[in-house]
Amino acid sequence: MSEEQAFWICDCLLPGYYAPMHGTLLDQRVFASLVQRCLAIIYNHFITVDVQLSVASLPWFLSLFINRMPTIFAFRIVDCFFCKGPKVLFQVGFGVSSYNLPLCVLIHESAILEINEEKLLQIQDDGRFLNLMQDYFASLGDSAHPNSSDPRARAITRFQELLSVSFREFSVITDDLILSERKRFRHEIIHS
């Protein structure tokens, strides 16, 4: 495949991710809207303490997670992205959020507090938010269940669990939902 062909494939999957980057800004607005709708407690906490979600999520979307997580895991995200499309970025973003921000959205749109509740509620600035994300990404190769008596459970990594949560619990984030949200916010982004 030539460079030009690769560019056009990426342009189809992520339209406008080049100067002036309207597509990037649009997807950040869509992601924030979905977080506001599905993870309202987290969204409201971030508004209260003036933490910008896009500080972490913009690099995720721009680099397809390549510059945020260990390469071996990032390439698996890229594989999923090329197989399943842009919804993967949103689903993995929500999966990361469910572990680190620490809510898990269920299909019925109810949320349960998870393992990092105390860490999240202590976040008061963008720097701590970025540090929490960095620490989480650095731990993706670690066991998700290190204290389990079942050796099969101990063998499951945080990355495997991230993919499972991302694709199972956030399967409600579909290509159609993303397209409709992009249409909803397109005028606002392009004319701002």
Automatic annotation (TrEMBL):
Indicate what this protein is called per its UniProt record.
Rab-GAP TBC domain-containing protein
Domain Rab-GAP TBC: start-end pairs: 1-85
InterPro entries given in the database record: Rab-GAP-TBC_dom, Rab-GAP_TBC_sf, Rab_GAP_TBC_domain
What PANTHER family does the record point to?
Answer: RAB GTPASE-ACTIVATING PROTEIN 1-LIKE, TBC1 DOMAIN FAMILY MEMBER 2B
Top-level taxonomic group:
Eukaryota
For this UniProt entry, the molecular function terms from Gene Ontology, in alphabetical order, are: GTPase activator activity; small GTPase binding
